[in-house]
């Protein structure tokens, strides 16, 4: 038995028929071709599969696709705007916060959820926000610095616009 | 076949809009509640659970609330851990509950999981039961006999667990809400835990609650997790503190009685020996912090 749902991914609507046991991560990757979201541990420990669901960081490998019906999903592919990278993406490059890159999409989305609610986080708040995202190339110092840099950039952009 | 990439077992889903509908669907054999799914999906992936139908309860308005009424904080079964830990009433009145929730998983898990789910999963080492025990929380259970509306009954959280991964819930019954009396003045509670790394499941955890009368312990409640088949109260320590004046190593002395109240085992996270040795230290720290929060000096 299949259920008709609509996923809104990165601002685009996808009407889909899903089986009850289909995992959101697999729908994003295998059916919508959005390969940015990664499969890591599959048991909710590593954070590689993190996406935003209505703005909140969640684990797509621990979510059944039907529960995301009608919700807004943001994946790493949804961050660039008119061909330019999101300040977080740019800051990860500039600060050398990427080594193997496997944790990066989840890490950036956790950071985005943080900055969307707390534009000026402390180091402690950053650490708390990415506690559920593992980096196994030991890049945490650069990652935290990149998130700080991005937060400053976003604030600067905000000032210029107002 | 077991895989963490795909779910091989087939089941159907129900997405009820009302509690009554959910309860009716749950009366059917093979039905299981799906809330945040953070425990259930893992259990399905490893074939530990094989449901034929999942009834999704997040988004049911009757279960999705956090309120204060009749002198109690009431948390609906569909309230997310992250909503609870950021709720102003909870933050100002139940700091120790916030601490216990805050150590559960990462941000993502707390954006998905529920307090009711943490109870229903019934892990002996779950982080919220000890604090709910000492705050005298009650669990409200609901079910339907068909056509008669939702039936409800309340029981103390201490009576909810019947063994590792086992609760009093029968087929068709779900947790409706968890309620906690608002703490009186001159009271304080604290939570302590030990784990290998911060994201780990606890080796051992504990919570303490103290009602203070001047420099005397009017009432003390202590509970521990991961030291017995279910979370447990520590009645021996509680009795030893009853009506006693603070000072002279009272908390240390009482905390050392913890061995009377616990029966830890060796498992993947720790050993019985380590748990026995460290339990008294955790209890003492929790008591000290609860005393401080109750306004007690020293």
Task: Please give a quick description of this structure.
Chain A is an alpha+beta fold and 162 residues long. Chain A has helices spanning 24-31, 87-94, 104-117, 123-129, 140-161, and strands spanning 2-9, 12-19, 50-53, 56-59, 72-74. Chain A has two domains: 2-76, Roll (Ubiquitin-like (UB roll)); 87-157, Orthogonal Bundle (DNA polymerase, domain 1), CATH 1.10.150.120.
Could you please describe the fold and organization of this structure?
The complex is a heterodimer of chains A (162) and B (298). Chain A is built from 5 helices and 5 strands. Chain A is an alpha+beta fold. Chain A has 2 domains: 2-76, Beta-grasp domain (Ubiquitin-like (UB roll), Roll); 87-157, DNA polymerase, domain 1, CATH 1.10.150. The longest helix of chain A is centred in the C-terminal third of the chain and has 22 residues, at 140-161. Chain A is globular and about 50 Å long. Chain B is of the alpha+beta class. Chain B has 11 helices and 14 strands. In chain B, strand 4 and strand 5 form a beta hairpin. The radius of gyration of chain B is 20 Å and the shape is globular. The interface between A and B is medium-sized, with 36 and 32 residues.
What brief labels describe this structure?
heterodimer; A: alpha+beta; Ubiquitin-like (UB roll); DNA polymerase, domain 1; five-stranded mixed beta sheet; B: 298 residues; alpha+beta; Uridine Diphospho-n-acetylenolpyruvylglucosamine Reductase, domain 2; Uridine Diphospho-n-acetylenolpyruvylglucosamine Reductase, domain 3; Enolase-like, domain 1; four-stranded antiparallel beta sheet; 26% strand
- Tally the helices of chain B: 11
First and last CA, distance of chain B: 58 Å
Give me the CATH superfamily of the largest domain in chain A: Beta-grasp domain
Task: Write down the secondary-structure element order of chain B.
Answer: EHEHEEEHHHHHHEEEEEEEEEHHH
Rounded to the nearest angstrom, the distance between the terminal CA atoms of chain A is 52 Å
What is the average per-residue confidence, as pLDDT of chain B, rounded to a whole number? 96
Residues in helices of chain A, as a percent range: 25-40%
Would you state the CATH class of the largest domain in chain A?
Alpha Beta
Mean pLDDT of chain A: 96
Main sheet summary of chain B: 5 strands, antiparallel
Query: What level of helicity do the residues of chain B show?
Result: 25-40%
């Amino acid at each position: 038995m299949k259920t008709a749902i609509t996923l809104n991914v990165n601002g685009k609507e996808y009407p889909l028929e899903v089986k009850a046991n289909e995992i959101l991560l697999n729908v994003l990757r295998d059916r919508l071709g959005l390969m940015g979201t990664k499969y890591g541990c599959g048991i909710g420990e590593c954070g590689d599969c993190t996406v935003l669901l209505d703005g909140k960081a969640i684990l797509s490998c621990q979510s059944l696709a039907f529960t995301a019906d009608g919700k807004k999903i943001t994946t790493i592919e949804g961050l660039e705007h008119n061909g330019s990278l999101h300040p977080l993406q740019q800051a990860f490059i500039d600060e050398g916060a990427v080594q193997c890159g496997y944790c990066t999409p989840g890490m950036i989305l956790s950071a985005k959820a943080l900055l969307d609610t707390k534009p000026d986080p402390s180091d402690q708040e950053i650490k708390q926000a990415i506690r559920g995202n593992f980096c196994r190339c030991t890049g945490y110092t650069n990652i935290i610095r990149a998130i700080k840099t991005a937060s400053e950039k976003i604030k600067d952009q905000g000032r210029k616009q107002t | 076949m077991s895989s963490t990439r795909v779910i091989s077992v087939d089941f159907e889903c129900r997405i009820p809009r009302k509690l009554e509908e959910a309860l009716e669907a749950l009366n059917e054999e093979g039905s299981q509640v799906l809330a945040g799914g953070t425990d259930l999906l893992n259990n399905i992936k490893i074939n530990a659970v094989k449901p034929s139908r999942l009834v999704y309860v997040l988004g049911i308005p009757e279960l999705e609330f956090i309120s204060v009424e009749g002198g109690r904080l009431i948390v609906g079964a569909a309230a997310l851990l992250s909503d609870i830990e950021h709720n102003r009433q909870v933050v100002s009145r139940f700091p120790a509950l916030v601490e216990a929730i805050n150590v559960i998983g990462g941000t993502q898990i707390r954006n998905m999981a529920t307090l009711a789910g943490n109870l229903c999963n019934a892990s002996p080492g779950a982080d919220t039961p000890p604090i709910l025990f000492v705050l005298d929380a009650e669990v409200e259970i609901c079910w339907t006999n068909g056509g008669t509306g939702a039936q409800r009954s309340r029981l103390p959280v201490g009576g909810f667990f019947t063994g590792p991964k086992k609760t009093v819930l029968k087929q068709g019954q779900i947790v409706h809400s968890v309620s906690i009396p608002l703490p009186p003045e001159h009271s304080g509670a604290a939570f302590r835990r030990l784990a290998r790394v911060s994201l780990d499941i606890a080796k051992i955890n504990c919570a303490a609650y103290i009602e203070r009368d001047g420099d005397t312990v009017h009432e003390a409640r202590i509970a521990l997790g991961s030291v017995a088949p279910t979370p447990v109260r520590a009645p021996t320590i509680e009795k030893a503190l009853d009506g006693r004046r603070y000072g002279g190593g009272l908390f240390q002395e009482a905390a050392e009685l913890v061995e009377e109240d616990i029966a830890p085992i060796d498992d993947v996270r720790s050993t019985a020996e380590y748990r026995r040795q460290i339990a008294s230290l955790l209890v003492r720290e929790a008591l000290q912090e609860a005393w401080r929060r109750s306004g007690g000096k020293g």
